[in-house]
Specification:
311 residues, Rossmann fold, 7-stranded mixed beta sheet, alpha/beta, globular
Length: 311
């Protein structure tokens, strides 16, 4: 165990935090999130962090209490004289609010970046940001990890590449899907969709040949699952033999679970950046704990993390 390093977590996803600490060869430190009767809460460490590298593992899923727990822990660590404060955020909430896509709208991800910096974070570690430019919102180092280093070995070991086609469920995911297709030397298909309001897809069509193929849809976030399930249905209509999907962050809100169960998706492969709300026979979870633990080890020993990026 590294005596100069300590792991802590809030209430968002303690199972993942514990797995990361264990994979590193350590254990979680003691921190208390104390709540008052009116719903207000505070955070304090039950052990010294003076002169330590403090890794605060907290995925910022709704409610916003999870984000505020992280901010309070950062502030507490700063005031307790921690040497470095590293926010480990496997799922970076508010990442879909990365630009002004209409007049008079907030840029939520920039606001979150400002709050984390103001609180005192000295480094950020995250995975598959919805928009790469969010890294530029920070004035501290950002280690942006890719789930492809977990998904690609799984694809190569468990799927038949001879009949596989990589697909993007929308044009926004084309770059990501194309990276997988190029690495695996496979064909690429794209679903073109028109969306008039958030979380509601109007029209969709397939660009590319999927007839008689096993289709693998690639995305970073699955929220209500409307786009993904509609894309899977369209692939089947175009003659696909089977449809699987890979998504890094299983937000899975609203009718998502029911949609997946009723969809043409044979298997949905996700990571544990977000805890599942319930089990599903169609959902397979791959852990990111070993990847994060390995990057933590390289940061602490001042080693390059380039080897952790496949694409």
């Amino acid at each position: 165990m590294d005596s100069q390093l300590k792991f802590f977590t809030g209430n968002a996803h303690p199972e993942l935090a514990e797995a990361i600490a264990k994979a590193y060869g350590s254990e979680l430190g003691e921190v208390t999130i104390a709540k008052f009767s009116d719903g207000e809460f505070t955070a304090y460490f039950d052990e010294t962090v003076r002169g330590k590298d403090v890794f605060l593992i907290q995925t910022t899923i709704p409610p916003t209490d999870n984000l505020f727990e992280l901010l309070l822990m950062i502030d507490a660590a700063k005031r307790a004289s921690a040497r470095n404060i590293i926010a480990v955020i496997p799922y970076f909430g508010f990442a879909r609010q990365d630009r002004k896509d209409k007049p008079r709208v907030a840029i939520g991800s920039k606001l979150v970046a400002n709050m984390l910096t103001a609180a005192g974070v000295t480094r950020l570690m995250t995975m598959d940001l919805h928009a790469d430019q969010i890294q530029g919102f920070f004035e501290v180092p950002v280690d942006h990890l890719f789930a492809s280093s977990i998904f690609l070995p799984y694809i190569q070991e468990n799927l038949d590449l001879s009949s596989l086609v990589i697909a993007a469920p929308d044009t926004g995911g084309t770059k990501r899907a194309n990276s997988y297709a190029k690495y695996l030397d496979l064909e690429l298909a794209i679903c073109y969709k028109q969306r008039r309001v958030a979380n509601e897809v109007q029209d969709m069509m397939v660009i590319g040949d999927v007839k008689g193929k096993d289709v693998l849809l690639i995305d970073d976030i699955i929220d209500t699952a409307g786009t993904l399930c509609k894309a899977a249905s369209l692939m089947k209509e175009e003659g696909a033999k089977s449809v699987r999907a890979i998504c890094t962050h299983p937000v899975l809100s609203g009718p998502a679970y029911d949609r997946i169960e009723a969809s043409d998706i044979t298997e949905l492969i996700v990571t544990d950046t977000i805890p599942l709300q319930k089990e599903s026979s169609k959902i397979k979870v791959l852990t990111v704990a070993n990847l994060f633990a390995d990057v933590v080890q390289k940061i602490e020993t001042q080693k390059s993390i380039s080897s952790n990026f496949i694409i």
